[in-house]
Amino acid sequence: MSDPAKTRRHAERVRELVASLVREIKDPRLGMVTITDARITGDLREATVFYTVLGDATEQAATKAALESAKGMLRTRVGHALGLRHSPSLAFSQDNVLDHAKEMEDLLAAARQRDQEVQRLAAGKQYAGDADPYKSEDDDEDDSAERVGAREDQG
Questions:
Q1: Could you give the percent of the chain with pLDDT greater than 90?
Q2: What is the pLDDT of residue 135?
Q3: Best CA proximity match to 92, nearest among 53, 143, 19, 38
Q4: φ and ψ at 35, to 5 degrees?
């Protein structure tokens, strides 16, 4: 098990290396790909590279196939650049950040719409009770004499 800081540095380095090496791949199936993140195991043997692809599902599938076919070349180049005893094996995983961002935006828009509906319904309405439902300090002094078991001679 290696140091977590060392693991983080290697993961960042893998991300940078794969991002630069992807530009050198001559496969026509490779679309507009962006390397977003890389994670590496504590023993530095396996690395997962996250990527996004601009395009529809067919372009995403073609890019995944291109990355899988270039995996050996990428692993060799990354291993030489890192200078580790064992080159980490690479696994590519599509990062659907854009889908999650769109889903979050839709949820926020729905919440805003519900808030506006509540504000519209509450406009011009009054509270059901007193304007100030809490006891004031004057009430506390009056109640102390009326309490059960209170002593009448306080002096």
A1: 43
A2: 74
A3: 38
A4: -85, 115
Judge whether 17 and 30 are in contact, CB under 8 Å. no
DSSP 32-73: EEEEEEEEE-TTSSEEEEEEEEES-HHHHHHHHHHHHHTHHH
Phi, psi dihedral angles at 117 (to 5 degrees) = -65, -40
Selection from 73, 6, 65 nearest residue 40 by Cα: 6
Q: Which of 5, 4, 11 is nearest to 84 (CA)?
A: 11
How many CB atoms neighbour CB 136 within 10 A?
8
What are the per-10-residue average pLDDT scores of the chain (155 residues)?
Answer: 83 92 87 90 92 88 91 90 88 86 94 94 80 71 58 56
Give CA–CA dist 41/86, Å, rounded.
13
Would strands 46-54 and 89-94 be described as parallel, antiparallel, or unpaired?
Answer: parallel
Share of the chain above pLDDT 70, in %: 86
